[in-house]
Amino acid sequence: MTTKLTELLGIRYPVIQGGMAWIAEAGLAAAVSEAGGVGLIAGGNAPADVIRKEILRARELTDKPFGVNIMLMSEHSADLMQLVCQERVAVVTTGAGSPGKYIESLKAAGVKVIPVVPSVALAKRMERAGADAVIAEGCEAGGHIGETTTMCLVPQIVDAVDIPVIAAGGIADGRGIAAALMLGAEGVQIGTLFLAADECKISQTYKQMLLDAKDTDSIVTGRITGHPVRSIKNRFTRNLLEHERENADPIKFGEMTSGSLKKAVVDGDKDEGSFMAGQIAGLIDKTEPAADQIERIFKEAEGVILGWQRQL
Ligand code: TUI
User: Fold this and answer.
1) Going by CA atoms, what residue is nearest to atom 28 of ligand 1?
2) pLDDT at site 249
3) Which partner from 10, 76, 78, 83 sits 20 to 30 angstroms from 49, CA to CA?
4) Is residue 197 left, alpha or beta, with left meaning phi > 0 and alpha meaning psi from -120 to 50?
């Protein structure tokens, strides 16, 4: 499948793996890249020396292009920007803020820049600042999200910018990919499905919660802090929502959420962990190697598109 994204990055399938903090390590990134997509190492809140080791480890596992996701709320984001320039990583995606001030130096180092944007206004700003593409991420996605759905966000951003638009949020099979392409996207970013990849080393509890999740099992917390997060409903999300309704103290909220993603990913603490996942979790019912996931969903997409063309 050839699109502006496959041409921009020199890849086989137009899919970028989500930059899931604490989760997306070299092993997953390399597996996705080896399979023909673009794997990402998540910077999360980690310092640069940790991510440097992950970059070197990914290079041992694959000679295909991979990237780093830089979460701009991290205190280490400026150091990570320097690191990816030094290491000349193929591509950087960003989340939870605007990477505007870094784009010039990234491009000078030959790093492709693809910011995640939750709005038309930020997409336009990123295009003016020199971004190579944007990821339009709808609020169906897991983790930190904006307010607009993928279905509404993607076509509006496609109309507003000339750079390629990648659709994200709610995509986990070939129908989702085909729909994204119909909306004018040049590719997709997929996070939640890759939680079920064999190479994704999260706790068994996290995997099982993902496989068990139904359509209505995710919920958004944290609106009072201005940083809403979607995760799978559990005691932790119930406590947070109760706090939001009754006390609404953002500082206490920060204390309640601190360390909760690690509790999900590493400890498998089903009551106190933050099990970030998108609304599409309900569609995911099996684990398999990342390469099988990618081949399966793109074969499905091709089938959906060809079947639809035959009807015309
Ligand atoms: O970043 C994500 N998803 C994430 S980051 C994360 S770690 C975290 N944990 C708790 C609270 C906050 C973060 C977990 N999941 N997706 C990309 C994304 N970026 N979604 C929304 C945005 C975004 C929001 C505002 C991007 C830019 C933005 O700009 C505001 C501005 O500066 O104009």
Assistant:
1) 97
2) 85
3) 10
4) beta
pLDDT classification of 42: cutoffs 50, 70, 90: very high
CA of 63 to the centre of ligand 1 (A): 29
Amino acid 248: pLDDT: 80
Q: In three state form, how does the secondary structure of 227-240 look?
A: CCEEEECCHHHHHH
Grade residue 247 by pLDDT with cuts at 50, 70 and 90: confident
Task: Give the bridge partners for 39, in sequence order.
Answer: 66
Cα angle 26-166-70, degrees, rounded to a multiple of 5: 40
Whether the predicted pLDDT of 44 surpasses 90 = yes
Query: Looking at residues 31-54, what average pLDDT do you find?
Result: 98
Residue nearest (by alpha carbon) to ligand 1 atom 4: 144
Instruction: Answer yes or no: is the C-beta of 19 below 6 A from any ligand 1 atom.
Output: no
The model's pTM: 0.98
Query: Do residues 5 and 164 lie in contact, with contact meaning Cβ atoms separated by under 8 Å?
Result: yes
Closest-CA residue, ligand 1 atom 20, reads: 145
Residues 6+ apart with CB under 8 A from 310: none
Compute the distance from residue 303 Cα to the ligand 1 centre, in Å: 34
Cβ of 143 below 6 Å from ligand 1: yes
Contact predicate 203/184, CB 8 Å:
no
